[in-house]
Each structure stands twice: as structure tokens, then as C-alpha cells.
Amino acid sequence: MSTPPKPARRSLKDLTDQERGQINRWRLVLGKSAEQSGLGISPGVGDGDCEGAEEALDFLFNERGGSSSGSNLTVPRWIDSVNELFPRQAKEVLERELVQRKGIHQLLEQPELLERIEPNVELVKTLLTHKDLLTPKTRVLARKVIDKVVNELKKKLEVRVEQAITGAVRKDKHSPRRVFKNLDLRTTLRRNLKNWNGERQKLLIDRIWFHAAEKNKRPWHVIVCVDQSGSMLESAIFSAVMASIFAELPGVKTSLVLFDTQIVDLSDKVGEPVDVLLSVQLGGGTDITRALEYCSGLVREPARTIVVLITDFYEGRSEEDLVRVVRRLVDANVRMVGLGALGYDAQPQYNRNTAGRLRKEGMDILVCTPEKLAEAMGKIITG
Q: Any idea where the VWFA domain is (predicted)?
């Protein structure tokens, strides 16, 4: 009796999309150790998502055979990745695993630890990332921690910021720029009528007047527009602090807008940075265009408006829409400042290609400390 022939082994290119999907799901269950058995991510529909999901899972479950040394994930970036790649039910399970495996559960179960830990920006980031999991007692302590860190940052920054911006506002008021848009034509004509030359039928102008007095009455409007994505959390902390300082300066009106795919206008809370931070909703998509369109509706005097956009420049819709809205604001004479990061991180991650396109349209692109931002805004105000 003859032995039946073995079925021919199929190559990956012969698999259907459904079969590739099944292999990818098993690959995610087994982890990178599956590679030892020749089971890897199958190329095809959704393979990029599978690689991202695998990185997110390995961030939690190092025993699966993954190595965190090659991963760029941080907790805030992990939140973004999980929001994008996993359904809601799976997301809730993974977040609970994050709390248990990264040691954050100790803060939730033993609130007194918060009173023993030295408050710092990293702790604030952790508390804000998991604020929905805080118990009533922990929430009270967390608010005290955030308040202490925010007040220390504000105390550290406000002198430098006030010097840079208040000084610039005073120079702007006392030394108005002698440019055409400030020309007081009626006063200039009236006060030079004595110089009318009847023979030549010309009015000779020996002095020009500008709208210095009227200019003094109009404040500068600073609109701070902050991306709520997880990767921008540290920048959001510094943005809330800076906006609260701006709001206390004479001659400056401040608006504060948070965004993901939705818009939250917190201008009425701009002087309460802790409340602002507790309103931040991490994760979700990003619609920078929509945020800037909203900010354009807040502009009353374009030439005296500065829009400070804090984002990683990863736009969730057509980049062409974003370019158009920036071009429109710049053409209207609004000063645009884009920050890929605001803080003291030496290695910010943002979309340099998109930022470069917006720079060509007239947006100043910076990655800087709060002090450097204040200096840059001072230079804008003094012209």
C-alpha cells in the first residue's frame, strides 16, 4: 500500500488576507518568541497595525519575549497607541494591566505614598495619565501634588516671562512703529495745511503723525492652542503654566484651547492651571486644522494676535487642509508660533516634514524651553 503524498507547503504570498490575519492574531498571542517556530507577522492588509499592537503588548508583557530596549514607547505614547489599535473593551483591560505591571497600582491602593514622594513633572504626568482610576482620597492628594508642582514651575518661570513680555509690551506702546498701517492720515493732513503751496498746488508734509495713543489701549492677544495627545502631555503641563502667567500680564489677553478631534475652550480657566490639567483628555485622534480654524474665530485684531500652537504635527486629516488654514492666518497678519515641544526634553519627537511645510507658509517652528518661548514672543511684540 503506497503512502499518500504530503500536501505541498504554501508560501506566504499564496495566503489569503483572512489567513494572514489569523496568523497575525496568533503571533500577537504568542509574542516574539513565536519567531523561534518560524511564525512571524505576515505581510498584507493591516500588518502595520499588527506591528504597532505587538509593540504595545510587549511594553506590558516583557516575558512574551519582546525587548523594551528597542521601543520608543513611553506611557503617554502607549496610551495613544492603545486608543488607536484596540477596541474599547480590550483597552480597559490593557490599562488595568499597565497600572498593575508598572507599579502605579501602589499609588492607587496606598494614597499615603503620594505624600512621601517628591512631587515632580514625571509624577504629574503619571497621575494625569491615570486620573480616571483615582479614588476620591487619591484624587484629593493628586490635586495637591499637581498644585505644588504647578506652583513651583510658575514661581520659577514667571519672573523671566514677565521680563521678556512685559518689557516688550511697554516698548511697543511707548515706541509705536512708524509704518503705514499706524498712519494717522487725518491728523497729518490737518496739521500740515499751513504748508499748502498754492503756486505748485501741492501740500508739503514736514511731519507725519501715527496712532500712538490709540495703539496704547489695545492689548496683545495670545491664543495658546494645545494638542491633548498622550505624547504631548509634558508640553501640555508647561503650556497650562505659561498660559496662566500670560493671563496675569498687563497689556496681554490670553485664550486657552485644548484639542484632539474636538475643541475645548478653557479660556475662562486660564488662571487656574490645575483645573486645566485635570480637564485634559489624553488619547484619541488629532485634528490640528479644526483647532486652528476655531482659533481663527477668536481673532479680532490680526496684527496684534499671536497663536501659539503646541503639537507633534501629526495631523489626522489631509495635510493640505492644515497648510491652507495656516496660510490664511499668516496672510491676515496673525503671528503663528508652532512648538514641537515645550519643556526641557532634549529629544522631542514630532513630524518634522509637516512642521517644515508650515514654516514655509510663515509659521515660526520652535522646540524650546518656556523661557525661550517668552523671549521669542517678546521679539514678535517689539517687531
A: 219-378
